[in-house]
Amino acid sequence: MGKKAKENVKSKKERIEKKSASIKAKKNSNVNYCCSLVSGLVAVLVVFLSYKAYMSLVHVPDLPNLDLDAWWGPNDTKLNQDTSIRPFRIVFSESMLTDLRRRFDDYRRLKKTKSFENATWTYGVNSDGYGQFFSHWIFKYNFQRREQYLNKFNHFKTNVQGLDIHFIHVKPKVDEDIKVIPLLLLHGWPGSVREFYEAIPRLTSPRAGYDFVFEIIAPSLPGFGYSQAPVRPGLSETPMAIVLRNLMHRLGFKQFYVQGGDLGHKIGTRMATLFPSEVLGLHTNMAVMFTDLPILVWVFGGVWPSLVEKDYTDRLYPVEDKVNFYLEESGYLHLQHTKPDTLGVALRESPAGLAAYIVEKFVIGTDPQNKFKDNGGLDAYNADDLIDNIMIYWMTGSITTSIRIFKENSRNKEMEIDMEKIPTEVPTWALRLRHEIFFMPEFMIKWKFTNLVGTTTKNVGGHFAALEKPDIFADDVFKAFKSFRGLRKTR
């Protein structure tokens, strides 16, 4: 090949290489551009999602638009609603007692499954410990005397929004210089108005250092005990708060005070949030808010617990221990949030099953360490008192309708979460007992209850404050409401 030909080949090769390099450079440029574009889009998406997450944590929703006269009863009673206030009496009918004793005999004849040796209550109810409790119901519970005891206070019913609502109403007898203030007591699940029997005399009796005493209104929540259940879905905590507020209006109380624990805390909080000019003060023995922000702070606080809570660190941490506890003890909640009616069939057919299901909640709620005791720590209560509560569920057949509220809360989840996020400005006081299932530091409580007047923290007691520790409960209610009344006088 000649010299000129070689130069042509070399030149051509150089042109090809140059063109290839140009194409490659262009491709790299395009790739870099695409990468930059994707990175930019990802950054924008991350910022957007972070903003959305932040807003979901701190955003305060508007109050929901609610029907204050929603009808929950049968439609055919709407035109003939009886709004009178009718006296009511608890009756242990002979037919009910005969049926109950027959079921007792059926249970005793069955070959009962024994618990593992040394298992105590870690698998649920312990056959020996529970057997002693159930034997008390069969052989020692005096039905006639307990019926009289349950009727020691005045009971009434009235129809509110289509539902016959049962309530205890106790008016104190005092001198004219003692102010009588109305107090709405709200129970939870698996409790009933029976929780307040020991506290009511303490709340309605004058005491030194206080110029007031309480007039007690203690209703059975709709679907619980002697209160009628709704005939259609939707009666979660917020609409239930409206029903009970309307009950107070029916009784002539346009302004009143509220105390609640468990579901009673949540319903009382909804009432205070919706009607801040009517609820003059709120006392709670379960001061918590079930929203994302406090949960995140609690979890991240596990790295440095004292930054979240200095004085009562062990009530919050270690996180792993608390999470394991909630996982182990919350299985019933999933059932009640999903299939309450199926569960209700089993519980309604067996007094032994119903009592076991309820009693186990008192075992754990009173002190989680009770599950390591042979008797489940049931000696913290008088057995008759616990059986009274079970009898209310059994006599009325209300276990199914009582646990439906958990399903209703799931159905109305968005509204109920919004209500949790809306600040409650009503003066609030929190009683925090040692073994309450949930504990929240004061700064977190103030995220929800912006006018937190005070807290009382004790190293005794558990979830069922009024029943287990009626003296501590009543003392704290008086202390709280004295502070509330002092605030009103200084305005």
TrEMBL record:
Nucleus is among the record's keywords: no
Key words, A-Z: Aromatic hydrocarbons catabolism, Hydrolase, Membrane, Transmembrane, Transmembrane helix
Class of this enzyme: hydrolase
Record's keyword annotation contains Coiled coil: no
InterPro entries: AB_hydrolase_fold, Epox_hydrolase-like, Epoxide_hydro_N, Epoxide_hydrolase
Superkingdom to which the source organism belongs: Eukaryota
Start and end residues of each stretch annotated as Disordered: 1-20
Main location: membrane
Residues of the Epoxide hydrolase N-terminal domain: 85-196
Catalytic activity, reaction form: 1-(4-methoxyphenyl)-N-methyl-N-[(3-methyloxetan-3-yl)methyl]methanamine + H2O = 2-{[(4-methoxybenzyl)(methyl)amino]methyl}-2-methylpropane-1,3-diol
Location of this chain's protein in the cell: Microsome membrane
Membrane-topology annotation of the record: Single-pass membrane protein
Annotated TM spans: 31-51
Any Pfam family the entry gives: EHN
EC number: 3.3.2.9
Family stated for the protein in its record: Belongs to the peptidase S33 family.
The protein, known as: microsomal epoxide hydrolase
Native source species: Chilo suppressalis
